Structure formats: structure tokens, C-alpha cells
Amino acid sequence: MPGTVQSIERAAAVLRLLAAAPDGLGVADLGNALGLAKTTVHGILRTLHQVGFVEQDHSGAHYHLSDTFGRLGESYLDPNELRSRAINWADSLASRSGEVVRVGRLVEGKVEVVHHVFRPDDSDQDLDVGTTLPPHATALGKAVLAYDTSARPRKLEAYTTRTITDPERLAEELATVRARGWACELEEYMVELASIAAPIRGLGGLVVGAVGLAGRVERICTSQLRHRPDLISMVRATAEAIARDLREDT
Amino acid sequence: MAEQYVAAVDQGTNSTRCILFDRRGRLVSVAQREHRQLFPRPGWVEHDAAEIWRNVTRVVPTAIRQIGAEPSQVVAIGITNQRETSLLWDRLTGRPIGNAVVWQDTRTARLVKELAGDEGPDRFADLCGLPLTTYFSAPRLKWMLDHTPGLRQRAERGEVYFGTMESWLIWNFTGGAHGGEHVTDVTNASRTMLMNIETLEWDDKLLEAFDVPRAVLPDIRPSSGVFATATDVLPGVRIGAALGDQQAALFGQTCFSAGEAKCTYGTGSFLLLHTGHEIVRSTHGMLTTVAYQIGDEPASYALEGSMAVTGSLVQWFRDGLGLIHTAAEIETLARTVDDNGGAYIVPAFSGLFAPHWRSEARGVIAGLTGYITKGHLARAVLEATGFQTLEVVDAMNADSGIALTALKVDGGMTANNLLMQFLADLLDVPVVRPMVTETVSLGAAYAAGLAVGYWPDLEGLRSNWHRAGQWLPHMDPDRRATEYANWNAAVQRTFNWIRPEQAAE
Q1: Region at B84 (left for phi over 0; alpha for psi -120 to 50; beta for the rest)
Q2: How far is A118 from chain B, CA to nearest CA, in Å?
């Protein structure tokens, strides 16, 4: 059995002390209480601040537990924040691929569209931000479902004859998504359409949503009906760029 | 042949950026450096121009290196800049004389009032298209010449150069004290109050009124056209364009015809309506400004509506009130309620800009009742930007006689769907977001690429423009009328807050 992680033990101790101090504590208070160097305590506090567990007061001298610490089960990234971080990268993906781009996240077993970029051909298109998509029948959905630890959808509705409706087959499909780091779909939601998506990983590797593109089969797939490798790498690079943005300055 | 790019240098209020664009107008690389904001006294805002030039020399090579390109792959440089920020420098040593005085600086408040005298703030509007406010460069230049011992004499002897930020950058790009070109473009010159808006030349009457020696002023050039060839940072690359940031955004949105308009939503917001080759004089508080000039073609003009506080109201809601953690969360909070609950926030933090131009106004929250929650206030914050836009659009329509048929939007706040939908509802026209939201840099790149033949013509640029999102109006006309009437009632309550005896000057 592997050993325990010392820095997590220390972080837990810091959290216990902060929870017991309604007025907050300073770096020196914590260092004295735990017998740790100020730089060590400072590093722990910075990390806890970055993941959203502790907050600083206005003067910056005192730290206290954040409100969100008590509500850890809730989504930690605001969907509108996700959109504002994704917007430039999603635009660039739409512009280079020539396809519709969406950013989605899992809400109550469905994929909620958080951001939608039109296909850049100036045809009539309607924004579908706020609408939902079936997670088992879309690439965007599979890319978030693959990393979701809550119960899988029980009833898998068929949208076309190609929709995966067998829970075991879906589990295999999601294992494949995890293994290669991206998801795809071919006429599983609508005939003649295909899609590709990749998960967006925030701090600590938490999947906060997915970004993907969708379009007509002949544009998304090769003549052998394989999803085009150049589009796959574009989608993955976009997901990574958004993730980098999220990790850098939360 | 290796791919070729145009480099846009965006010298903004908070940072300097270099963005490379490819032939299809797609952003391929970005590098950015912030500079210090200097606040030597209340109301004073300055920048260190030497620091800004150092940042330029860093961001340009970084942007090129990021994509593994060579400097020789850059075919042109396009410059865009924070407007009206003013600088004097020594032409022999190349060193700035003091700091650049930033557009937000209000040290000239008293001077502006004195200059207006009995004739009022519009006394020069016929000549330059602008009212006397602390916002524009000429009062600032006069202040600098008057308050630095010996400077006026040196200026008259021709030892000193004046410039807005694009002049400073071009001068340094072309060798600085060693043969640098001292030039500006028509859009930046149109923000000084010293250029005649019809002749596009420095106007003797204005120079005399502001007591500015002609020797300090740069040559005025078209916005798109080869200014010079750089000898520093990117030696051998032609500088193909310079435009003020809002004019660059208009160009980047490919608003090339009369009647086309764009609004850039940032800290403040700026709506520009292209009025063709015609100079439209506003009687409703809009500014008359040059949109751009391409080579020896006649200049295109624009009406501009400036809103001082839009994104900064969201920042205040976050930092001042602490009701949200990030700017984007305001949409989440606003969606916890269905409407504004009867509350209206008029953010006249330092008076009202267009179309009111009331410097004595201060902000209000109107319609407060016990029913109002932070969700309603979040709505009111977002709606304030919508109402301010509607006021500007109404004034533009009245001045130009052209009714807006769609509004092209860009800037950070376009990520806010609730605001964009509210805008469409309130304006009763489609609101359209383009694929490239970095329209300021894109406009500078377009104008520069056009000058060196990288892009053939305006039509070619138009074909690069694509719709990334669109919001259509759905609001019931009666509700729209009621909401606007409520807003106007709230605006009335901001007037005359600062009484003459309180006015700090």
C-alpha cells in the first residue's frame, strides 16, 4: 500500500484550524499553531485559495474558509465563467474547422449547451445556449459522461438506429473515450451528422465540461467513415487551451 | 513559401499586445504585457512611455516566436492605440518629457471650463467636431506646455515633439532620435481638437486657441498607407496603418459603408456609426470623428457615442460590493430572477457621457423597494449597459436620419448572453457577434495588410467576416416603452448632484 501524502495532511490541518476561527487566521498564526515554516503555510494557503477552499479578507492578512467549501457537491465552475474562458478558443476552432462549435457541461444527467458558435458560412442559425442534448448520443455528451462518477442514465433513448441504447456498450464506449482522451459519434443523434469532442479539465484534473464540433458526415469523416484526424487534433488542442486558461488564473 | 502574417500592435490603456493574423483574418498568435498605471494625484492618470515602448520591443518578438515563425514572415505592422493619451518627448535624446497623460486624466477640468468661457463647450465643435472636455488631447497638451518650466520655449524652438501613442511608437519603430518619423494618422489627429475635421489638417485657429506651437505637431497621414519602414524591432517591415482603437474596431468589423455600426463593450463602451464621406454634425451629444482614410481616397467619417461606465459597473459590483467573485458570475446571479423588479442603476460615476455630457451628475439606484434582491441588482447592472446603448442609438438615428438595422458587437461583455439578448430586445434589431472578437487588433491588421497589398480590397476583407452568434429581438413593444421610460426617469434623478460650491477643482 502506498504511503500517505504529507502536504494533504497539512492542508487538512490548516482547514481544521480555519474552520474553528470565524474571524480568520494569518499565515503566522497557522505557522505557529502547526509548527510549520511561513513559506510552507503560504504555499498551502495559495493552493487552497486557488481551488476555492479558502478566501482572503480585504486586507489580505487573514484567511478563512470559503462559502463554497460547505457546498462541495455543487458544480465548482460557473457556466458563464466557462463560456467567457472558452469564447476565444471556441471561435478559433469554428473558424479553422468551418463547423459548428459547442461547449457543454453535465447538468442533471443531460448536456447543457453553455456556448454555441455558428458555422462560419453566414447561413441562418439559431443560438441554442441553454438547451440540452442527450449525453449518450452526442460526442459532447460522451466526453463529459466518461468522467462522471454519478449514476449513468438508466434509460438510453434511441434517436437513430445507430444510437447506443445498450448500457454495457455505452460503458465500453466511455472506457474508449477515457483511454484516448476524446469522444466521437456518427449519425447517433441525427442522420447525416457526426461530431467530435474533448473534455476540458480544470484544476486537479476535474472535468468541468467539453468542447466539440458537429457537422455533416462527409465533412467530419473520411471516405472510410473515420473521424478526420486533423479535426480531432484541433478539438483536443482547443480543449487543452481552455483548460490551460482555467488552471492559470482561477 | 512560408506562411505570411500581419502583426497588429495594440497599445491599450492597460497593456500592449501583439497579435498575428493570417490571410483569412484568423488570429494565430497573441503576446501581451501590462504596464503600470501611475496615479500621482487624485484625478491624475499617467503612463511611462519608455516602459510602453520597451513592452512593444518584447511582445512583438514573443508573438512571432510563439508560432515558430521568422520576423521575415511578417509583411506589415498595423498600429492601434488608446486614444487621446498625450506625450511630449525630446527629439534629440529621444526621451519622454514627463509621463504620458492618459485619456482618463481630469487635471484639465478647470482649464476646459476657462477655455469654454461664455461660448460654452461647443465653441470649437464646428472646426474639430468635438466638445471641450477633459477627454481630448489639446487641453492636456496646453496644460503640459504651461506647467513645465521652459518647455514652451523649447517647443517653439522645435526641440520637442508631441504625439499620441501611435506617434510615439512609429517614431521609435523608425529609429527614434536617429531619423525617426514624426507622424500621426487622421483618426488619432481627429481626437486632439487641433485638426480641422474638413481639411484634415492642423487648424491655425485651434492651434492659437490652445496656444500650441505648430513645430511640436506630427505630420497627419492616412490611416491605411505605408507610413515608413521599421528599422527597429522588425527591421525592413513596413508600417502600413495606424488607427485609434475604436476606429480600428469599426474597421475590423468591416463596417465600410454608411449606416453600418459597431459597439465595443469593455470597461467603457463605444458605438461608432459609419456616415460615409459626409460629416454629420450631432445635435444630440454624439462626437463627429474620422473613421479612417485609405491612401489618397477621401476620408470616411463616423458618429461616436461614448459610454463611460459599462463593464466597469460589473467590476464595481464584484470588487466594490463583493456580490460576485468573477465578472461572468453576474449573469448567473441575474438569472436567479425574471426581471429587474423595478430597480434601475444609472452609473454616472464621474458624470454622464453621451448623449447627456453632464459632468455634475452622479449615480443612482432608483426604484428600490424591500422586494429587491441582489439578483435584481445584477439585472439592473447589466441592463444599464443596454439602456445606455439605446440612448446612444436613438441619438445617432436622430442625427444621421439612418435607422440602425443591426448592431455588430465585440469586446469582453459579448460573452454575456443575457446582456446580448437584452440589447436585441431593447434596440429591436438583431445583435450580431463576429467570429473574431479581437476586432481592434484585426482592424489595425486589415488596414496595414491593405496598404501593402496583402489583402486586395475592402470586399476581400468583408468576405473574412463571419457571424459567430446572433440574438433576435423578442420583447413586447409596450414593455420596451415602459422600461425605457423608467430608465429615463432614473437618469433625470442623477442630474445636478454636484453643486457648483462642491465642485473640486
Answers
A1: left
A2: 5
Q: What are phi and psi of B369, to 5 degrees?
A: -140, 175
d(CA A38, CA A44) in angstroms, rounded, equals 10
Place A250 in a pLDDT band, splitting at 50, 70 and 90.
Answer: very low
Task: For residues A135-162, give the mean pLDDT.
Answer: 88
Query: Is A120 in contact with B27 (Cβ distance < 8 A)?
Result: no
Complex ipTM more than 0.85, yes or no? no
Does A248 reach chain B within 8 Å, measured CB to CB?
Answer: no
Element of type H or E holding B161: strand B160-164
Verify whether the Cβ–Cβ distance A81 to B466 is below 8 Å: no
- For residue B258, give the nearest of B404, B147, B103 by alpha carbon: B404
Rounded CA separation B421/B222 (Å): 38
pLDDT band at B61 (very low <50, low <70, confident <90, very high): very high
Pairing relationship of beta strands B431-434 and B407-410 according to DSSP bridges: parallel
Q: For the ranges A179-188, B315-324, B442-451, B482-491, which has the lowest average pLDDT?
A: B315-324
B415 within 8 A of A87, measured Cβ to Cβ: yes
Of all residues in chain B, the one with the smallest CA distance to A78 is B329
**Are B417 and A83 within 8 A, CB to CB?**
yes
DSSP-assigned letters across all residues of B78-98? EEEE-SS-EEEEETTT--BSS
One-letter amino acid of B224? S
Contact A91 B331 (CB under 8 A): no
Query: By CB neighbour count within 10 A (0-12 exposed, 13-18 middle, 19+ buried), where does B186 fall?
Result: buried
Q: What is residue A74's predicted lDDT score, i.e. its pLDDT?
A: 62
**A118: contact with B, CB 8 A cutoff:** yes
DSSP A189-250: SSTTEEEEEEEEE-GGG-EEEEEEEEEEHHHHB-TTSPBPHHHHHHHHHHHHHHHHHHHHT-
Q: What is the DSSP string of B23-35?
A: TTS-EEEEEEEE-
| 3-class DSSP state of A108 | coil
Shortest Cα distance, chain A CAs vs residue B471, angstroms: 7
- Exposed/middle/buried for residue A204 (C-beta within 10 Å: 0-12, 13-18, 19+): exposed
d(CA B354, CA B337): 30
Host H or E run for residue B486: helix B477-492
| b/e map B83-96, b = 16+ CB within 10 Å | bbbbbbbebeebeb
Contact A94 B435 (CB under 8 A): yes
pLDDT bracket for residue B505 (50, 70, 90): very low
CA–CA gap between residue B478 and residue B265 (Å, rounded): 27
Residue of A57, A58, A67, A91 best to disrupt the B interface, most CBs of B under 10 A: A91
Query: Which residues does B contribute to its contact with A (CB < 8 Å)?
Result: 24, 26-27, 326-332, 412, 414-417, 435-438, 466-471
Q: Which of A87, A94, A118 sits opposite B415 (nearest CB)?
A: A87
CB contact under 8 A, A127 and B329: no
At B312 the three-state DSSP class reads: helix
Question: Residues with Cβ < 8 Å from A211, sequence gap 6 or more?
Answer: A86, A89, A90, A93, A101, A102, A103, A140, A197, A198, A200, A235, A238, A239, A242
pTM: 0.84
Is the Cβ–Cβ distance between A18 and A12 less than 8 Å? no
pLDDT for the residue B33: 87
Cis bond upstream, residue B430 (ω within 30) = no
Question: Which of A:75-94 have CB within 8 Å of B?
Answer: 78-81, 83-84, 87-88, 91-92, 94
- Mind telling me how many Å the CA of B199 is from chain A's nearest CA? 39
Say which DSSP state A101 is in: E
Q: Binning pLDDT at 50, 70 and 90, where does residue B20 land?
A: very high
